[in-house]
Each structure stands twice: as structure tokens, then as C-alpha cells.
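Take one protein record:
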Amino acid sequence: MSTFLRPPGVLSEEDFQKRCISCGQCAQVCVFNCVELVPDFFLGGTTPRLYQRKSPCFLCMKCSAICPTNALRDVPMEQSGMGKAFLDAKKCVDYQEEAMVMCWTCYERCPMKGTAIVLGRGGYIPEVQDACVGCGVCEYVCPIHAISVVPARHLAGGG
């Protein structure tokens, strides 16, 4: 399974591949330099990808706004649909009873803090919600790699 993400506002993978013309505008406008143009041997040319462990999407939404073919739709960040984060409670420090410290890094750094990741169980334990759009920031900042983002194209009903 490929672990890269497509930029925010992505269509289904099939529709994305039909529309993307490898123009590179999405990468040029990305102020965080997280959108990379990578050779795509199936399509020819290059397509935009994000590697969330290297540089996640901070949901500035500039890339989806500039896409000339709507391979990336200009949508609000809440509808960016890049994927979904999954937290492994067996690894997460906050879920360990003997933990001497609370981490909350994923919660604190989430661009959709309080919506995509909330502090449940009395305000102490991070929980990923359905509002998560899969930007990858939580996976990037987690010091013990307890969070993984599954790209939308690999989720049930995804592209």
C-alpha cells in the first residue's frame, strides 16, 4: 500500500488521474513545500504527492484553489478529504496507565484542533474523530509514531 497522500480537495484517484495535467501549479504555490511532483509511470509526467512523515499538509488550501482542471477541488479545509488518521492506543503514551507525562502533541498541532482530534475521557486522551481529513500533521509530530494516516484512495469508498 502506498503511503503518500494527494493534496487537499483531491477527487477519487481515478478521477484525479483523468484530470491532472502535471502542470505543477499546486507544488509551486505550496508555502510549506509539502507538495512534491513525483514521476508517475502510469500517467506519464509527474503528479503531486505529500509524504506526511517528511512534510505534512498544513491545510493552507492554496494548491486546491489554483488547480486549473479541478483534479484538486477548491473546497474548505473541512472537506479536503486526503485520508484519515488512526491512533494506535497500544503505542500512544496518553493511553498508558503508568505514563508519567501527558503528550497531546497530535491534539495541539492539529490544524483542525478540537474537531479532527479531541481530548476525550475527561479531557486527557486524544481521540481521532470522523472530521479528520488526513492532512498528516498528527503522524508527522507524534514522537513515537502512534498515528498513521491512511490515504483516501485506500479507505472504503475512497478513490
Observations:
- Residues 35 and 104 are 26 Å apart (CA to CA).
- Residues 13-19 form the longest helix (7 residues).
- The longest strand covers residues 83-87.
